[in-house]
C-alpha cells in the first residue's frame, strides 16, 4: 500500500470518528421515537401537548402534558430573569474591571459552580432553601417555583457568564481605545461600545443558559414540588417535564402507555432544547462578525 | 535535464483561491549553488519557495499550473508523494521552530521516522550538529530542551534538523530575519560552508545578505520574475530598471 | 472648565460608580452562593465522614454504615465513560482540526456536536434506556451507564481537544512536514503529544461532570441497593449521586439518614470539585510556563 493510500484511509477513519456525534444524535432521536411514538396511537398529539390532565396511572389514564410544559417554561423563564443580569454583570466585571488576581479567582469560582453536581444543588435547595422559604413566607411548602428557579439560575450562571466573557473579551481593543480617546468614561465605553459589539455572543450565552435550565433534571425533580397543575402563584409547586420523566420512569411498566408517554415527553424536551441550541448556533454564526458595522 | 541544473520550472502559475500569486514563472536552479530570491513583500518569492517542496499544499484553496521538474519528474504529478519530495528538499523557516523536545530528539525526529536505526542516530545527530556549527555549544546539553537555546542557536538547530534528513536541496525562508546580527553572521558563514554539499535556495529581504552569500539572484515583483542572473551582475549592472530601483532604493 | 461641565462629569462618574457597584455585587453574590453551599455541605457533612463511612457498605436498610459500594460504582462508571468518551473525542477533534477542510460537512458535524452538547441529561437517560438497555440488551448495567455517560461528555472532550490541538503552533506541523514526515506521523508524534496536556485538563472538567450526573444513570445503571459488589460490566451498581437522591427523597427515614446524606454529598462534592480543581491548577500552571 502506498503512503498516499494509507494517508487517505487514515483520513477517512478519523472522519468516521468525527461522525460519531452526529450518529449518536440520530440514535437519540431514533430511540425516543421508537419508544415514544406509539403513545400517539392512544392519544392525539394535540391532546397530548395541550391536555390539562396528567394522570398517567388512572384507569383510563390521562396523558395531557400541558401543565408540565408550563412548569418547565415558568421555572426556566424565572431562572433566566435571575441568571442573566448576574451572569452578564459578572462577565463584565471579569473581563473589563476586575484586577488580574480577582479575575483569576472569579473564573475559578464560576468553573467550580459549573462543576457542582446537579443532585448536590438539588439537595441544597431541598434541605436549606425550602425550609427557609417555608418559614419566612409562611408557606405550605418551600418546594416551589421560586426555589427551583433560584437553584436553576445558579446552574445557568456559569454558562451565561463564561460565554458572555468570551464575547466581551473578543471585542477589538481599537473600539475601546477609540471610545476612550473621545473622552468617554469606562462605564460609557462598556455600555455604549463594548456591550453592543458583544451582543451576539451574549445572546448566544443567554440561549444556551436557557437550554441548560429547561433540560436540567435533578434540581426540578427535588425542588419544584411535583404538582402537575398550572400554578397560580410563584409560591406554587410545579412538575416540569424532566422531573416527570425521572420520577415516574421507575414505576412505569415496560412499554405501557405511561412508559411511552414519558418517552414522548422526552421527544418534546429534546426538540425544545434543540430549538434553543439551533437558535444559539444560528445567532453566533450569523452575527459572528464583531466589526464596526455592528456599532 | 543538464547535469548542473537541479530544479526547473516551466510556466508555473499559482493561485490563492481566485487571486494569482505567481505568473508564468520559468526558471532553473543550479546544483550546489546558492540562489537568492529577492523582491518587495508580497512579490511571491516565499510562495515560490514553498512551491518547491509542496508546502503550499497545506493551504486550502490553492492551485498550481505548469510543472516543476526535480530529478526529471514533475513534483506536482498526481503519482508523486509530497512526503517523498520533502525528504529530499528540506526547509528552514523564517522564525526558528524547534519542537519542544530535547536537542537530540529534535535532530533525531526525522531520521527515526525514516527508519534510521538507533545505533546510527548518535553519529547522525553529531554529524548534523557539526555541519550546522552548533556541536561545540550543545554537545553537553543534548538532553536539555531545545527551547532553552537562544534564537540563533535554535535556527542552527533547525538547519541541523533539516540536514539530518540528508536532503539534496535546502530551502531557506528568510532564515535570519528574526535573528540578531551576530547570529546572522554565523548563519551566513554556515550557508557558505553548506553550499559545497547542498543546493541552497534562500528568500531574503536583506539586500546585502543576498549580495554576500548568493551565486545567483532572482528579482520578483508582483508575482512576476523580473530579472534572474548572476548575483554580481544583478547588483552591479541590472538589465531591468525595476531591479535597479529596488536594489538602489534599498541601499538608500 | 465651567461649572456645568464639572457637574456633568460628576454625574457621569456617579453613574459609573453605581454601575461598578452593581457589577461587583453580582460577582460577590455568585462567590457567596458557591462559598455558602460548600461551607454548608462541609459543615454538616464532615461529622459523618470516617474511615468506616468510606470503606464499609451500608447496613440496616441503608440507615447506617458506609457508602463504599456507591463510591466504587461511581469510579467504575466514570472510568467507563472516559474509556468511551476520550478516544472518540480526541479522534473527532483530530479530524476537525487536522484533516477537515472548512465546508458543509464540517459545519454539519459541528452543529451536530453543539446539539449533542445541548441534549438534556434526562434525555440521555431515556436514550440509554431505549438503546443500550433495551435494544442492545445490555440491561441496567455498568456498560449501559458508561456508554450513556461517555456520549454525554463527548462534546466537552471534543471541544477541549479541538482547542488544545489548535493551540499547537502551525510552525510545528510545517517543520515536521518539511522534513518529509507524513501527515499522520506528524499528527501522532508532534501535534498530539504537544496537545495532550491541554486535552487532558480540558477533558477533566467533562470527567467531573460524568462523575456527578444522576439522571443519565437512573434508568441505565444505578441500583437503589446492591448486596454485593458488581462482578462484571453487565451488573448494576450503586453510585454516589443516585444514592444521595434516593436517601433524600425516597427513603423511609429521610430525617434519620440526614447525616449520611450530608456525608455522601460531601464525598461527591470533594470528588468532583477535587477533579475540577486539579484541572484548573494544572491549566494555570501550564499557561504560565507555556514556551510557545
Q: What keyword list fits this structure?
A:
heterotrimer, A: 295 residues, mainly alpha, MetI-like fold, two-stranded antiparallel ribbon, 12 helices, 2 strands, globular, disordered C terminus, C: 292 residues, two-stranded antiparallel sheet
What does this structure look like?
The complex is a heterotrimer of chains A (295), B (252) and C (292). Chain A has one domain (3-294): MetI-like fold (Orthogonal Bundle). Helices cover 73% and strands 1% of the residues of chain A. Chain A has twelve helices and two strands, in the order H-H-E-E-H-H-H-H-H-H-H-H-H-H. Chain A has helices spanning 3-36, 45-50, 66-97, 100-115, 118-137, 145-169, 173-181, 186-197, 199-215, 218-223, 241-248, 257-286, and strands spanning 54-55, 62-63. A two-stranded antiparallel ribbon of chain A has the order 1-2. In chain A, helix 3 (66-97) crosses helix 9 and helix 5 (118-137) packs across helix 6 (145-169). Chain A starts with a helix and ends in a 9-residue tail after the last helix. Chain B is 38% helix and 27% strand. Chain B has helices spanning 45-52, 82-88, 103-113, 118-131, 135-138, 151-163, 181-194, 207-213, 231-236, 241-251, and strands at residues 5-16, 19-30, 34-38, 62-70, 73-74, 89-92, 169-173, 199-203, 216-221, 224-230. In chain B, a hairpin with a 2-residue loop joins strand 1 and strand 2 (19-30). In chain B, helix 3 (103-113) runs parallel beside helix 6. The mean pLDDT of chain B is 90. With 292 residues, chain C is mainly α. A two-stranded antiparallel sheet of chain C has the order 1-2. The mean pLDDT of chain C is 88. Chains A and C meet through helix 1, helix 3, helix 4, helix 5 and helix 6 of A and helix 1, helix 3, helix 4, helix 5 and helix 6 of C.
